[in-house]
Amino acid sequence: MKTVIIMSHPYYENSRVNKTLFEAAKSAENVIVRHLEEIYGTDTSKIDVANEQKILENADKIVFQFPLFWFGMPPMLKAYVDLVFAYGWAYGTSGDKLKGKQFQVAVSSGTAEAEYSKQGKVALTYDELLLPLQATAGYCGMNINKIFVSGGALNASDDDIKNYADKYVALLKN
Question: Residue 167: enclosing H or E segment and its boundaries?
Fold first, then answer.
């Protein structure tokens, strides 16, 4: 299975969790990794839609990896979805290029996972917060996998981060 990871993190140089996951993913077989801000900076007009669509067409599994930004996607990833998942290509009249592909979200949060529950400070689950992204994937005919969460990134120990990376690579292999 060919997997493409589309990672967005505007503060990647300061990241511990996403940087470790992204670097670990590079070692997985049949995995292509793409860091949007590294490729395009923060200028959404530079996104090469045709090239990105070609890359996604050749994948069996598409992974969006990102830190939660105010309970959603970072700006470059949102722009990527808006531009690349175009009508007539991803959905609509003869637009089914993503149909049947596996879709995976790998998200990190600075706050502990327990806070993303009805009883927690956020009072919503990761599934609820990321429902628009999952709905987008479903609308495009993709098979949606369970969200992979790396919670508590701000206070994660090196061992916690290594454990997340090991689980992430195992997920990518399956």
Answer: helix 158-173
Residue 12 contacts residue 74 (beta carbons within 8 Å):
no
Q: Which two tokens stand for residue 134?
A: 């999952």
With beta carbons less than 8 A apart as the criterion, state whether 104 and 130 touch: no
pTM of the model: 0.96
Terminal Cα distance for the chain, rounded: 9
Q: Which two tokens stand for residue 141?
A: 């005919």
User: What angle (nearest 5°) sits at the alpha carbon of residue 16, between those of residues 33 and 108?
Assistant: 70
Q: Is the dihedral of CA 22, 12, 60, 31 positive or negative?
A: negative
> With 0-12 CB in 10 A as exposed, 13-18 as middle and 19+ as buried, what is 51?
exposed
Task: Give the position of tokens 């493409």.
Answer: 4
Tell me which residue has tokens 């992979």: 148
Residues of the chain with pLDDT under 70: none
Q: Which string of b and e fits 67-101 if b means at least 16 CB within 10 Å?
A: bbeeeebbebbbbbbeebbeeebbbeeebebbeeb
Strand partners, 72: 69
Using alpha carbons, select from 166, 123, 168, 124 the residue that is nearest to residue 147. Answer: 168
pLDDT value of position 66: 98
pLDDT at 1: 86
